[in-house]
Structures are given as structure tokens and as C-alpha cells.
């Protein structure tokens, strides 16, 4: 799959452009309509497989392909994708995604290795492109902090879990010399209170995502 990373200030803008181009190529191929509906031995369609990927571009390709197959779609596919993603996500649906993933993380093994590998892929793409790794990785961490719980994408629960853990790995790679935040800074986040005392990168979904990783890791370390 094409996992080209952004060179623009707006990561989502660049990703939508590339995803729409990929979706057009896929949907215009001979027999595409039937192939996209076909379910394989893994019980997934081609779109469903894209939705298991932790890479944002793959997720947006899946969105674009679903839009392409929608009777309500009008105009260019890239324009349709932009309109769809520019429509604000429901705060209730976003919170539902967060709660579902946090609950799952307390009950099942954590996808730490997959998240680290995915973050490493992004870092290698950045470095191979000759860009500033620290700055770009910080932008990707901020992007995934909102993207993992975005209800507008059809990401599987596992993909969302991996994306959530990627936030921490991307942030750590962007700031290799930073000391980990002390547990006291996370006390308000764990109770759902104000996060005014947290560093800037810990606000919102990003801060809560990093906290989940640290909290679960802490319990794993102290559990016999």
C-alpha cells in the first residue's frame, strides 16, 4: 500500500488528495465494483482490509471508496471526500469511540509492537524524504491524537487501538530527550477533570491517549 507521508503544513489536506487519487484508480479498474464487494477468506472486503490499517491514508482511501459507491455522491471524488471530512464529527460519537477503545485496552493485550512498527514506518518515510524528523513526527502525533477516535472513518477497533498507541510512539520519537511526564500530571485526566496542568501536547484526545498508554503500562509492570 502507498504510505506516502505529507510534505504540506496540513496533513489531512495532503492525505485526502493522495487517498482520493488512490480510490479513483481502484474504483476505475475493470470489475472494481464486484471486487470491492467480494469478501475474502479473511471475511473482509477490500475496503474492510483498508479499515484494519493503522495508516491514515489507507483509512481515507476506504472512506473515499465508500463514498464512490454511494448513490448520494455528487461531483469529483476528492471534492466529496473533502466535504465529508470537513463536516465536524459528532462529539457524542467521538466520545463513544474513545470509551470503547479505552475499555478494550483494559481487557485485551495491548498492540504495542504494531504501534511502534507503524510509527517507525512513518519516521523512516520522513527521514528518507530529507525532512526534519522532530517537527514532522510532532505533527503526526498531533494528527493521530484526533484521528484515532474520529467517527467519520470506518477503522476497526484494533486499528484504532494501534493508532492510539502510535500517538505516544510518535511523540517520543519527536522528543527523544524529554523526560516522561510524572504521574501527578495525569491525575485530573484519569478522573475526567480539567487538564489545565498538563503540558500543551497532552490536551484533548492526545493527552488522554498518552495517559492510557502510561497507565496500562504501569499496571502491567506492577502486576505479578
Give a topology summary:
Layout: H1 11-27, H2 32-37, H3 46-50, H4 56-68, H5 77-86, H6 91-107, H7 112-128, H8 133-147, H9 157-174, H10 187-190, H11 204-222
Helix pairs in contact: 1-4, 1-5, 4-5, 6-9, 7-9, 8-9, 8-11, 9-11
Summarize the structure.
This protein is an all-alpha fold.
Judging from the principal axes of the Cα atoms, what is the shape?
A: globular
Care to count the β-strands? 0
Structural class: mainly alpha
Order of helices and strands: HHHHHHHHHHH
Sheet with most strands: none
Low-confidence stretches: 1-9, 182-204
Terminal Cα separation, in Å? 41 Å
How confident is the prediction overall: mean pLDDT? Answer: 79
By DSSP (H or I, 4+ residues per run), the number of helices equals: 11
Helix content: 55-70%
What can you see in these coordinates?
The chain is mostly helical and 224 residues long. It contains 11 helices and no strands. It has helices at residues 11-27, 32-37, 46-50, 56-68, 77-86, 91-107, 112-128, 133-147, 157-174, 187-190, 204-222. The chain is globular and about 50 Å long. The termini are far apart.
Provide tags for this entry.
224 residues, mainly alpha, 11 helices
Amino acid at each position: 500500500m502507498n504510505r506516502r507521508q505529507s510534505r504540506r503544513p496540513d496533513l489531512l489536506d495532503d492525505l485526502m488528495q493522495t487517498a482520493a487519487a488512490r480510490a479513483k484508480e481502484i474504483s476505475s479498474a475493470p470489475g472494481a465494483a464486484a471486487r470491492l464487494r467480494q469478501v475474502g477468506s479473511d471475511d473482509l472486503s477490500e475496503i474492510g482490509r483498508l479499515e484494519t490499517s493503522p495508516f491514515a491514508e489507507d483509512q481515507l482511501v476506504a472512506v473515499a471508496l465508500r463514498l464512490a459507491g454511494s448513490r448520494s455522491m455528487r461531483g469529483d471524488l476528492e471534492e466529496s471526500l473533502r466535504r465529508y471530512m470537513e463536516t465536524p464529527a459528532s462529539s457524542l460519537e467521538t466520545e463513544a469511540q474513545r470509551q470503547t477503545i479505552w475499555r478494550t485496552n483494559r481487557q485485551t493485550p495491548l498492540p504495542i509492537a504494531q504501534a511502534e512498527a507503524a510509527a517507525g514506518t512513518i519516521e523512516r518515510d520522513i527521514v528518507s524524504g530529507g525532512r526534519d524528523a522532530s517537527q514532522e513526527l510532532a505533527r503526526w502525533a498531533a494528527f493521530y491524537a484526533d484521528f484515532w477516535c474520529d467517527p467519520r472513518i470506518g477503522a476497526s477497533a484494533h486499528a484504532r487501538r494501534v493508532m492510539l498507541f502510535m500517538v505516544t510512539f510518535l511523540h517520543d520519537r519527536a522528543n527523544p530527550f524529554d523526560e516522561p511526564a510524572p504521574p501527578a500530571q495525569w491525575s485530573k485526566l484519569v478522573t475526567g477533570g480539567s487538564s489545565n496542568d498538563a503540558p500543551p501536547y497532552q490536551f484533548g484526545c492526545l493527552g488522554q491517549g498518552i495517559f492510557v498508554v502510561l497507565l496500562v503500562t504501569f499496571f502491567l509492570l506492577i502486576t505479578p
